[in-house]
Amino acid sequence: MAIIPLAEIPARGAALHGPDAWAIRHGEDVISWGVLADRATRRAHALRDVGVGPGDLVTLALPNGSAFYEIMFALWTIGATPHVVSYRLPLAELEAIVAVAEPKIVIASDKSLRDAFGAQPGDFGRDHPNTTPIVPVIAPRWKAMSSGGSTGRPKIIVAPGPNTIDSERKPPLRFPDHGPILATGPVYHNMPVTTNIQALFEGHPIIGMTRFDPEEALRLIQEFGVKWTSFVPTMMMRISRMPEEVRARYDVSTLETVWHWAAPMPAELKQEWIDWIGPEKIWELYGGTEGIVTTILNGEEWLTHRGSVGRAHMDKIKIVDEAGVELPRGEVGEIFALPAGGRGSTYSYIGADARVTEDGFETLGDFGWMDEDGYLYIADRRTDMIVSGGANIFPAEVEGALMAHPGVEGAVVIGLPDQDFGATTHAIVQLTQEAQGLVDPDELLAFLRERLVAYKLPRSFEFATTMLRDDAGKVRRQQLREERIAALRQSMPDSQPVAG
């Protein structure tokens, strides 16, 4: 077993490929392994100069780009912990997160955020004159991610364990023997940043995207002969909805492994991709930033367990009812898991408490069931479930059915308050450019009646012209619901209050 400090990854890459070989590229922003190592050292000195030291949290609100990686390696060099947030966060949300995290400093690309926090800019320390090598400081926390933007209750998810990596322990990501990976997702989410750092450690250059564009993704695969990439279902839907003549312009035959994660995958969309590039190349991972459970399966397994997200990789899973009693196979309940290393081995919270059973199992709040072969199926999140007339409706199921319509590019389903049923299902739909003005609620209802039982059908529809999910496949469902409830309150007479 060889334990390597994360701070040494740039130097290892320079030794493997040469200091002048490119390591990370985002369009015209291309840096070599040698430059990455040099800038990380300069930034590390600059961070020390402003008082950042071992164990300190430093909040990073930066877009995809070389600056993000330079600062990450600089922080690991001095034993500080990068706390990653979305650079697109509204000021009020970032203020709430920073109040919980209490970072030493904030580094932000957005000027308004810098002004509000007295934050440092993204190029902070890049040209610091001191290039003296620093012996990496080993620290007990290697990263911290934020969650709770959709619920209004921010929490920090801290990854325990030192800022090192075991060279002999490789996660089952199926990286190729050599060559670059295409990193499509925003680095302020857990899977993109985790997989990208692992790829750099294994010597794979990273082709990043500052903003996901479906045709550009295919062009990059062809230009660089990409063998490995990852998407969220929203990205795959956008590629799938491209005109066939556009998609056919690009050769993607080099692809060996395509992962998808972070959001529910509509079955018909997955089938399209299996038919397009082959089931052996499609891989799915289900888990959470907390790391308490990871399930994996490939397209060949999925074809015999349609709709599943796979079996536990190393962890234990059980499905329980509201009383905490374990349910038999096939029954829907809340998913609880115990990581292979035991409770507390994968994360700790700042600003929140975990829901834990007496035997140490924890939950992320997802509902689902397991089949007789141990394959897990996801229904939805506890907080997203709609109870209408006493029936449980899982938005992910309705969204998947909507997105099977060829004219639908995206869909989000929420529950709106109703005096008779308690809640009714409201669908917010984003149509493809070609379908706008041609597809109406009646057509969507007719389409859904062939796929859903009557009580799951949306009672109302709304058509949106902007993207409903971000590049990480995330949606602010609670915010969408609150905005529509507020609009309902304004439109209703005082004698007909709308419950929250």
Report what the structure shows.
This protein is α/β, with parallel strands linked by helices and 500 residues long. Among the domains are: 264-383, Luciferase, Domain 3 (Luciferase, domain 3, Roll); 385-491, GMP Synthetase, Chain A, domain 3 (2-Layer Sandwich). Helices cover 28% and strands 26% of the residues. The chain is built from 14 helices and 26 strands. It has helices spanning 9-17, 33-49, 66-77, 91-101, 111-117, 190-201, 214-224, 233-240, 244-247, 267-277, 299-304, 395-403, 441-449, 477-491; strands at residues 3-5, 22-26, 29-32, 57-61, 81-84, 105-108, 141-147, 155-160, 164-166, 181-183, 206-208, 228-231, 257-260, 282-287, 294-298, 311-312, 316-320, 333-338, 348-350, 362-370, 376-381, 386-388, 391-393, 408-418, 422-431, 460-464. Strands 3-2-11-10-12-13-14-15-16 form a nine-stranded mixed beta sheet, with helices on both faces. The protein has a six-stranded mixed beta sheet with strand order 6-4-5-7-8-19, with helices on both faces. Strands 17-18-20-21 form a four-stranded antiparallel beta sheet. Helix 1 packs antiparallel against helix 2 (33-49) and helix 2 packs across helix 3. The radius of gyration is 23 Å and the shape is globular. The N and C termini lie far apart (55 Å). Mean pLDDT is 90; it is low at 495-500.
